[in-house]
Each structure stands twice: as structure tokens, then as C-alpha cells.
Amino acid sequence: MTRLLACLAALLVLSGCAAIPTQTSPVPINPSAGNATEAAAPKPAKGIDPLTLVREFVNASANPDGDYAAAKAYLTEDAKKSWDIKAPPTIIESTFNTVPTGADLPSDPKRRTVLLQGKNIGSLEVDNSFVQRVGDLTAPVGLETDKDGEWRISDPPDGIYVPQSGFNSNYRRVTLYFYNPDFTVLVPDPRYVVVTPSTAIPRRVTELLLKGPAVGMRGALTTAIPNGAAQRTNTQEADDGALQVDLTKVGDLTVQVRRQIVAQVVKSLVGVSSSRIRVLVEGARISADQAEWRLADIQPLTGEALVTPDADLSGLVVSGGQVRKLVGGEPIKGPSGSGEYQVVSAAQSLDGTQLAVVSRVDEKGVRLRVGNLEEPLAQVDLPAITLTRPTWLLGGREDEPSTEVWTVADGSNVVRVLKTDNGWRANAVNASELSSTFGPITELRLSRDGTRVAAVAGGRLVVAAVVKGQDSSVSLRLARNLQPTVLGTAVLTVDWLAQDVLVAGTSLASLPIAKVNVDGLKVERYNASNLTVPVRSVTAAPGRNVVAVDESGLWSAGDVGDVWRASTVKVESGAKAFYPG
């Protein structure tokens, strides 16, 4: 392979290929699934040409059964031993090319070199989480003829490349649940596992759950499951039909920790099994009070009420310097609704009792005001030329109002404003990874569980983990640009539809509103009917219609396929709609 790469160096430079993602300390994505073996894998068709052989090899690489037996059928015996199948796979676009290089030696008709060319989408990490890594793919593949004169791959590409269509067929998205640092809310952590055999999926989910949060969320999420815990027996259906999870090496557990473990296990497994779930420790049930669990049994432990706005809170909108009701359109009571503050943008706390507004002071400055809804608001000592629409952190308990609201001053200074005995005080957040990498921050939204932020930075859709240090400092870590090839730098506004789903408004006529998974693997297009770009304001919440503001006014839609319906509330084109949070 070294000689081959040297021969191709000049060609690769001319083609402008990007660096192929690499991984460190790779481990198997999943134990080998199914009963496939190399002997059972179908052999390539006789007389197949080198270009087609490489294409079929890449398509076969999507199937990990039997240690990639289907793909190994295209390799020479030596290549089967040397091909690295332990590294996590890289997902590429389903449309890719196999082209000759022109570097083959005429004197050796038994050898060929083929270039695999395509577009990288991202890769699975060692923890089975997906991370977007877009860029050009150009990888050389060496071939030679075997004793029967058939072409086989002698120098496979470094790593495993899987077309997205094949990845979708062979892997399934599962959602694990871990707690926020205060253990008040369960937070989704998406992963991807092999689909066959389906009976093994609960075991794989349990394995991943025991290993803890994904690397990208370490420090933002925590787990009640003790470090070193393992499955005493494989998670599987018992004879009576219950899905049985038997844990070991958990040590002494308090009653509260036992309940939290049950909540994590049940919430993570209900997405892959409809069976009742039995949680054991060393063969004995984990709780003396209950033997089996369903989702309804753990609902009080999920914290869902803390992150779901009450149905009575129908949302608000800022228009003409006033805060008005989203339903009916009348101004709210107090100076925020009267126009006294000349409100530019605003945010209502999740419990609905508090309001934070960005108030216009003069042509060159704004100020943040915070206080009780429909009452005079205290001005925060935070001078700025611009402030992003505020965003509230959840309260500690259902009956506790929030004491923290975030905003971004002048495009780069992320601040958390905390309620103290002496009023509201601004504290800096370390957001250098976000602003220095992607550009000015024009929108920032805390997830309603407080563990992630979604931002519009340099027109890009970016997410990052919210990590709190032992000294009470807060940092935004592992900022990642979602769907850069689709959304580019055209994003104008964003909000959280769910804990792991975003809705973004753009200036793209073909994609005015996009629905994006938090890991960036999936993007869906909302119906563009009736909307005109740019869409400068969008708001969303669990179980609510998405509300957008374009040049003509307020619009709402229930799902991606729905036609946008006009609101009877008339607002300015620069209005800002918002649900609590």
C-alpha cells in the first residue's frame, strides 16, 4: 500500500481530496451479529470488472454480519487478514464513483488501481454516536487477479466506508437516556446499533447504557448507574414475555439511586421493546415495591413536566416594541406590553411566571430586563450594542421558578444572568469553541433540559454541550455544525422542537424551515407552501405547532408535511414569536 500511495500522490493532490476522517483507540461497534460466515457470504459474480467489484465491495461493507463477511468475499486472502474492521465506519453519500487512476503499469496486466470517490457524511464513534464530518472522499483501492483470473481487492481502503442507504438498512437509531447534572431530567442521547438479529437490540442498548453518556456529552450528562456495572446475564425476553435486565457489580445502592437506575433503563428500552421490563440486581428485583415496569411507572422520575411548557401557556410574540399574546394578539399587561420598553425580543420562563426582554435604549444600544411577567422589569448591568433573544434555564423543581437566563452580547460574549440577593447579575460563559470557529452568534437557545445549546453562528446551525465545572464555571464544548452542505450559512433562527430535535428558519427558498436531529444525521424539509424567505423567527415546543414569521406575517404548521396556515394576529415582518423556554 505504501508504494501504491506514493504512485498516486500527485494525482490525489490534483483532485483536491480532503483528509479522510481517522479514529483513535478504535473498538468494535457491536459484537458480530447473526450467523453469517465468510463461507456463507455470496461470492462476486464471475468475470466482474475492477470498477464494479470495488462498487459492490463498498455496498457490501454496510453489512457488519459475520465480521463483514459479505465485504470480505471481494478481498484476497491476505487482504482479509489485514483489513481493519475494528475501526468505526465512515458513512458516505449513497451516490459515489469508482474510477480508474491511469497509474497501472502496462507490464503488469494482473494489477489495477481504482479510486473510490464520493462525499463523507460522518462517522460512528466508538460509543456508537454519530458525528458529522463532511468533505470529499478519495481513497485508492488496489486489485489483482487470483489463480482463476478473477479480480479481487488486495489493498482495501483504510477503514470501512458505508453508503448512507446501506447504513440506514443495517443500523437502527436508538435513544439512551441519562440525567442532567442535577438528576432532575432525563435527557436523550442518540446512538446507532446493528439491526440483526433484532432480538439482540435490547442487549446492545443495555451495553451502551452501562458505558455512560456519549463522548460528546461527557460533563453535560450524568448517570445513576455506577461505574463498572455490567449485565449479569444478557438482556432478553424471559419465558413469561417480560424483558429482563439483570445487573451486577453495582455496589450498595440507595432507594433513590435504584429508582433512578430503573428510570434510565426503562426509558432507554421502551423505544426498542413493547414488553414490560423487569430490572434485577444479582438476580433479585431492584425494587422491593415493584417487580416490573412500564413507561407510565417511571413518568415522575423523567422530569418531563419540567421541560414541557404548560398547555395554558400559548406563547407570546414581540411586534412593534410590545410583547403580545400569540393567540388573540392583545398586549400583555405591564410596561413590556405597553411599548414603554421598546422590546426587541423576549423570552418567557418555562413555568410562565417570568419574562426577560431585550429593550431598545437608543440607536446604538440595548439592555436586558428581567422580572415577573406583566410587572416592571429590573435592568441588568450588561451594556451592549446587540443582545440575542434571551433563553431560560429550567427551574430546579416544578414549584421553583428559574433563576437563570442566557443571552449573547455583541455576537461573541455568551452570558448567563443569575438571580442573586442583590438582583440579576451577568456571568461569562466560555464559548470560545463556538464563536471563534463559526463566527458571530446571532441566536442562542438552551435546550429545555439545559444540557445543550443550539446557536446560529456565522449563519450556520451549531450545537454544543453545556458543561459545568466544579468551580461553577460554565463552558460550551464540542460545538458541531449540523447539515453544513444543506443549510450552509443561510440559517437565521432556531428553536428546540424536542430535547433532541431542532427547527431552523433560513433564507433558502427551497428550504425555509428545516427539522434537524441533534446529531445532524437526519434533516427533514417542512412544506414550503405559503412561506416566503427569509424566515427570521421560528419557535417550537413539544406537542405544539411550529410558528414562523416571514415577510408577510405569522404562520403555523403541525408537522413537516402540513401546509402553513396564516394567523389572524397581524404582526410586523421583524416580529419574534416564542414559546416558554
Automatic annotation (TrEMBL):
Superkingdom assignment: Bacteria
InterPro entries: GerMN (IPR019606), LpqB_C (IPR018910), LpqB_N (IPR059026)
Pfam families cross-referenced by the UniProt entry: Germane, Gmad1, LpqB_N
Record's keyword terms, sorted: Signal
SUPFAM superfamilies from the UniProt entry: 3-carboxy-cis,cis-mucoante lactonizing enzyme
The GerMN domain, residue ranges: 202-290
PROSITE patterns associated with the record: PROKAR_LIPOPROTEIN
Signal peptide: 1-18
Protein name according to UniProt: Sporulation and spore germination protein
Species whose genome carries this gene: Saccharothrix variisporea
Taxonomy of the source species: Bacteria, Bacillati, Actinomycetota, Actinomycetes, Pseudonocardiales
